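Ticket #4471: structure output looks truncated?

Reporter: J.K.
Steps to reproduce: submitted the chain below (295 residues) through the standard prediction queue, then opened the result file.
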Amino acid sequence: MKTDPGGTPDQSHILDHMCENLCSFLRCFLSLREVEKKAFVENGRPTTPGDLRKTVAELIMASRADKKATFDRYGGSSKDRAAENARNNVATERDKAVLRGEACGWCGKNLPRHSRMEGVKSTYCSQKCSEEGRLRRGFSVREEVFALEGGVCQRCGVDAHALFLRIKSLQPAERLSALCDVNWRLPCGGSALDRLLQRPREGDFWQADHIRAVAEGGGQCGADNLQTLCTPCHKAETERLRARLKLNSRAEMEKRENISGKFQGQLDIRSAFGSFSGTFHQSGSKHKRRQRTAD
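Returned output as attached by the reporter:
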């Protein structure tokens, strides 16, 4: 490091070094997915530009582990458990507080005082519980993903939301040409294509996709397992998932057949004794017939 004649570090060099580190950090931060940015900002763990991705990966994995443990332990939200316990006549005071709206519908903790004021209707005690509860209960998943990623496909980068708004503003006769100009993958069926051109919906342009598929155990994850995919990319990903599940199913079937074949190849002890007893009985009868004939 450069120093001035008095032996102290050159202040301009320190400032340049700080600016370089800051720019490197911003480049790395901006390359993250929106859900990863959110996880890092909410946690506030200090890190360096070189360790940023590693830190974010650790935060995401820890978040998934915590959510899975909570889901495995409780099997859903506190409101679901309270309703089930009430149906079975085993509701606790905490369950009753949840059902009365005095406790959080996700974690079961008491709602803040301002949330229990007259005229105020609150279900969750915090923003975090609100997000978890809505995702688990299947509400507003698209809204949660859209708030993070704005309808931009995380696979090909197309702004599917902006494309939807553009197509919707056009006349039906102009929509086909506009979709072809951006190389949009059109529906194969005539009726589906006609509906897209006549009555386009936002769901025709982008989907909230599970990064780890529900069929492969991703249904218990939170917002960190969701991403925006344009409809063509989502369809391609679904086709890959079906092929993967079919392959896994075939491998599982072959494994079962191999196990079954091994057991069939082994001689059952009862069958062995039965066949041995029958053979012994037949040979004894033949010996007696020979003796009678000789007599």
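Triage note (M.O.): checked the attachment and the full token line is present. The first strand starts at residue 206 and ends at 210.
Status: closed, working as intended.
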